[in-house]
Design brief:
The protein contains 2 helices and 15 strands. The protein is mainly beta.
C-alpha cells in the first residue's frame, strides 16, 4: 500500500493534518474529476453528513479548502499497512511519526526529503512529543507505558506504566505543560 503524506511547514494540530491529508487523497480526486457536479453543502460548515449510512470515504464532503490552503506531497510511505500517528518535530526540523500497524517510528528530513525508519520495533508506539531538552516522549501502546528517549544516546527510561496500582493500556497521545508535567491518554488495566 502506498500512502501519501502531505506536510505543511507549520504543524498546528499536526496529528489532524497528517491524518486528514492522507485520507483525503481520493476525495480530492473525485471532487476535481467532476467539477460541474452540484453540491448541497453550505459554505459555513467544514463537514457535511452524507446520511445515516456509513460512506465509502468517511471524509466525503469535507471542505478542506476552508482550512488547509496549498498542500503538496512531501513523501510517500511504501509499506504493507499504513496508519500514521503522533507527528513530532525536533529542533532541526526532522519530523518523527509512527506507522502503528507496522510497529515503526519513521523520520522525515525536510532538507534532503529523505524518509527513513528511526525505530523498527517501536513496541506499538503511537503518540510522540519532544521535550524542551530535546528528548523524545513515546507512548508505547503494546508495552503499556510512556517512555523518554535520549536522542543522543538512544537510551530510554520509563515515565509512566502504572496508575493506582494498575498497568496502563495503550497510552496514546501526550502533551506537557509549561511546568513540565506530562499528560497522556490511556486506559488502566
Amino acid at each position: 500500500m502506498i500512502f501519501k503524506i502531505y506536510f505543511k511547514r507549520f504543524l498546528a494540530h499536526g496529528t489532524i493534518l497528517f491524518c486528514l491529508f492522507g485520507c483525503m487523497e481520493n476525495w480530492n480526486k473525485e471532487t476535481k474529476s467532476n467539477p460541474n457536479e452540484e453540491s448541497n453543502n453550505s459554505s459555513d460548515t467544514l463537514y457535511s453528513n452524507v446520511g445515516d449510512t456509513p460512506s465509502k470515504d468517511k471524509y466525503e464532503g469535507l471542505k478542506s479548502e476552508l482550512f488547509l490552503g496549498d498542500v503538496t506531497v512531501e513523501t510517500r510511505i511504501d509499506d504493507k499497512e499504513v496508519f500514521t500517528e503522533g507527528p513530532a518535530v525536533d529542533r532541526n526540523g526532522t519530523v518523527y511519526f509512527t506507522n502503528v500497524p507496522m510497529n515503526k517510528i519513521l523520520s522525515w528530513n525536510p532538507e534532503n526529503k529523505k524518509l527513513s525508519v528511526f525505530k523498527a520495533e517501536s513496541n506499538g508506539a503511537n503518540g510522540l512529543r519532544f521535550t524542551p531538552e530535546g528528548n523524545l516522549l513515546i507512548c508505547e501502546g503494546d508495552g503499556g507505558k510512556v517512555i523518554r528517549m535520549d536522542m543522543v544516546s538512544k537510551n530510554t527510561s520509563v515515565v509512566a506504566e502504572i496508575f493506582n496500582g494498575k498497568g496502563l493500556q495503550s497510552p496514546n497521545d501526550l502533551e506537557y505543560d509549561a511546568k513540565g508535567r506530562i499528560y497522556f491518554s490511556s486506559r488502566t488495566g
